[in-house]
Amino acid sequence: MEKSKMLLVGLGQGAGNVVDGLLSKNSSYNGLFFNSSSLDIRPLKNANIGKNVYLYPGTDGSGRDRTKSKEMIKDNANAIGTLLKKYPQTEVMVIFASFGGGTGSGAIKTFIQIAASAIPTTKINVVGILPSLSEDQLAFKNALECWNDINSVMHLINDIKFVDNNKRNTYTEINNEVVESLDLAYNLMGVHADGNIDKKDSFRINTADGAGVVLKLYDGLKDAKTAIDFAIKNSVFSQPDTYDCDYLGINLKIDGYDANEIGKSFEVYRSTYVTYNNSFNVIVLGGCETPTESIKLIKLALDDKSKRKQSRDKARSVIIDFDDEGSNNENNSDDTLEFSFE
């Protein structure tokens, strides 16, 4: 894909961190940051107030309140649409949002609708960041509501990916891996005597309708099948139940894994593209089925927390019994005072 014709949009703090990482990785991307708090913007190296940042006026954060976020984006819909129209050359818009938060979670459905109206020719991709199973009840509830919002506008979305926050120990590790994997996917192109992947091929793979899968193959494993299995296990993205896909892109190190063996590992319904390079191994699948296991686990986690909350008996006052008779007599006396007011 042509990076200068890509627009990366970060809705909220968590999403903004990923967009900032991609812009640091390659300055050819265009990026926009949307937020309700200037404090979330300040740490970002590539966010410039007045240039590529939109702060909802008169707000100071959403407090993870999706309803508040929905109201904010609806109040600013015209201004946001006008801003997006300044990027008419955009071929692919990638919208990032943390599903368990407030600003991005509550805004993403309306933002997708605004984007589709503002730039009707653009392909809209979504990268949804799911909460880890160690987070709280509100994060789970927000994520499930956001999931339903996304599904109600799925007809406007081309490629969609979900980040699994359970796959690393820290958010920094997750963000770094997401940035590296997506940049590899968007840099899928290559020219080689045994196969080429051009910008149009990469565009077709990365914007196929359905879920996208990015797999980094590590060197030194005994064969391609082992490398694929390890890449699936190590991926920070939620994985589909099956790896049937419309398009398969393979870009491998020269004299490394066997591309034919990799191709046989997947059911591809349209086209497979292969090329070679000197530094990395990446496989990109376009048009897979939507992965649902991660969201089912979030629903189970929410149900579990809800049950424990309902069974919780919060003790507020406790009467202590004394074995000593003297203590009992002294402490069992009725010291209750009665008040009357005229």
Automatic annotation (TrEMBL):
Pfam families: Tubulin. It comes from Clostridium acetobutylicum (strain ATCC 824 / DSM 792 / JCM 1419 / IAM 19013 / LMG 5710 / NBRC 13948 / NRRL B-527 / VKM B-1787 / 2291 / W). GO terms for biological process: cell division. Keywords: Cell cycle, Cell division. InterPro entries: Tubulin/FtsZ_GTPase_sf, Tubulin_FtsZ_GTPase. Gene3D superfamilies: 3.30.1330.150, Tubulin/FtsZ, GTPase domain. Signal peptide: none annotated. Residues 322-342 are annotated as: Disordered. This is Homolog of cell division GTPase FtsZ, diverged. GO terms for molecular function: GTP binding. Residues 8-155 form the Tubulin/FtsZ GTPase domain. It comes from the Bacteria.
